Structures are given as C-alpha cells and as structure tokens.
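Hi L., both proteins are below.
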Amino acid sequence: VQLQASGGGLVQPGGSLRLSCTASGFTWRTYNYAWFRQAPGKEREGVSCMTSGSRMTMYADAMKGRFNISRGDAKNTVFLQMTSLKPEDTAVYYCNAPTLNLWGQGTQVTVSS
C-alpha cells in the first residue's frame, strides 16, 4: 500500500510543472486525495484536494486559478498541474490519501531563475 509522487524539478518563474501521484496496493478509486507542500522552515500546508465520488475539488487561496488537481483512473494516478509558478511555490510536494493516513515520499519543486 503506497503512494509514489513524481514530476518535480527546477522551473523558471511563470513556468509549469505537472506532478503525479501513483497509488498501488489498494482500491484507489474509493478514496479522496490531496496535495500538501512544505517549504524550508515552514509548516506543511494544504494545496488541493479531490473527493472520490463527486470529484469535488478544493484549492488553497494562493493556488486558485493556477493549480489544477485531476485523476487518471486508468493509471491509478492523481495529478497536480501547476502553472504560473512563483518562487514562493518552492517546496517539497506530498500527495496524501487522508482516510488512509497514507503519504507519498515527496517531490521537490524549485521555482527560480
């Protein structure tokens, strides 16, 4: 039972990245999923979440209009499409299945010129 996050990297301000979180070992369609991030010296904060059945999505205010969470059912994957990236988006991004209290290992996103 695990979540595997990937897709981080170095990007210039204004650029885009797509993070992926692949689930394995459980019936992933029945659960909600979320993305969190943690910048150096700061607490972990919520970025976005998506419910299983209704596919309702929510975003932190700082991410609205720039980030999009989606699911790829065929690939057991949750995506986080990030656009118009800013230096303050630099952090380690974690995917999470809240009901299972299951976390991915984190993927580093660095926004810098």
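That was the first. Here is the second:
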Amino acid sequence: QVQLVESGGGLVQAGGSLRLSCAASGITLSFNTVGWYRQAPGKQRELVAHISSGGTTNYADSVKGRFTISRDNAKNTVYLQMNSLKPEDTAVYYCKSWSVFKAYWGQGTQVTVSS
C-alpha cells in the first residue's frame, strides 16, 4: 500500500521559514517525479515545485528564490524548504508522486503565515 505523509506545516510569521517533509512508503520516490502543490481557500490547487527522478527541479514564479525542493533517497523523503514566507503562501500543501502509470497524493499539511 502506497502512502505519502506530509509534515512540518504550522503557523509562522511573515518572513519566517518552514520545512515540509513528504515521507513515502510502498513507493520509491527517486523513481518518480515528486511535486509540492498548494491550495488556498477558494482557489485552485497549484503546483509550487517539483523534482524529477533525475533531480531536475522547477518552481512556480511566485516561489522562485524563496522555496527549495530536495530529496533524500536514503530516507525516501522529499522536502520543501520555504523561506521568506508571505501571507499569500498560506494554504494546505500537498505532495504528489507520479509516473506515466500512476499518481499518489498525500493528505496535506496546513501552512499559515501571519502578517
């Protein structure tokens, strides 16, 4: 059974930092592309960052220079380091692992940035 479990969310002041983790079981994250998405109230879910199986990373323009996605193959975990957080980063953050065959989602973790 495949499980993706996000953690690390919370309440932080603007300008602060958080590191989100996406720990996987039943699947090897390094074999797939893994992305972090977020969904704010009343808005569509958007892709924030992703890392390919080869390690190539991409970011939404809104987070470039502030967020960093990385992967620890030994821990089968993908991270999202979020710095210089802004109130508009407030959302539920989800990780997703996908290949040409299947996609898996985590349950999400809430990030709230106060002004």
